[in-house]
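FAQ: What does the model actually see?

It sees only this:
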Amino acid sequence: MTGQELPGESATAGERPGMWSRQGAYELSWHDLGTALDSIARSVRADGFTPDVVLGVARGGLLAASYLTCALDVPQMSLVRVRRTRDDSQYAAKRPPLLEQEGPVPKPGTAVLVVDDIVGTGATADVVREHLRTAGVTDTDVRFAALVRNHRSGYVPDYCPAVVDDWVVFPWEQGWGRTAGTRPFPLGEAR
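And it is asked to produce this:
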């Protein structure tokens, strides 16, 4: 699939015009991944937020969630799966988020750090936040972290060390190191 809209289906599901500059994907190296995760851990500690559980958003947020569970000495990790793209191709068509609970649901009063790989529109964060509200977890007990945020996203996670204007190839993805025209990853202290 090329990421084009399928007949009769909404391909954008909340995407904003100009989200992708299409000047070449960014390639996040394992080294940059470690730097980004350390930045998130420092920011969480600096805020004084002490999560009881790290909730990883499958698939892309699982490696980051596992790392942060250890780095922050959090006693529990759980996961949810939120499916948005129709396939794994670059600029893949989007659909409304579909959440599937994979692990135990956090209980009311639990401090939860939700971790994802990338924020495009914020739709995934919205559906996860509503899922947690339904379980009785208040918004004040939830923080969101992402490795990367799209520059046009209307949603800004609590912790996010990088902002990009194009596709990101993560080191665990097929094609990493072989994707033509990639650019160096722009790590900074976005928050």
